[in-house]
Amino acid sequence: MNKSDTQDITLTLDRALYIASIQAHIDLEKLLADAIRDELPRLAAKRQQSLEEFINSETFKELLKLWGKD
Questions:
Q1: Is residue 25 part of a domain?
Q2: Which of 1, 26, 37, 39 could form a disulfide with 21 if both were Cys (CB 3.0 to 4.6 A apart)?
């Protein structure tokens, strides 16, 4: 994961939420793991879109010419 991806999945928990979760017997580790797991398909789609944009870019076409693959 790169910095942008980690920023996309960063969850902010303030002290009140943390205390409330303990009082409500909520497993924060599971909650965070579930949130990250739920975010992974979106990140995978974003990565695929970025890859497709790069493959269709002029930069990639120029690289192919340099590698003799055009």
A1: yes
A2: 26
**6 falls within a domain:** no
Residue/partner pairs of 4-10 with CB below 8 Å, 24 or more apart: 5/43, 8/39, 8/43, 8/46, 9/35, 9/36, 9/39, 9/43
Q: Which of 48, 34, 46, 35 is nearest to 9 (CA)?
A: 35
pTM of the entire predicted model: 0.51
Structural domain of residue 36, as residue ranges?
A: 11-67
Half-sphere exposure at residue 1, Cβ-oriented, CA atoms within 13 angstroms: 13
In this predicted structure, the answer to whether residue 12 has a pLDDT above a threshold of 60 is: no
pLDDT tens digits for 43-56?
999 999 999 999 99
What confidence tens digit (pLDDT) does each residue in 21-37 have?
788 888 877 888 888 89
Domains of the chain: total: 1
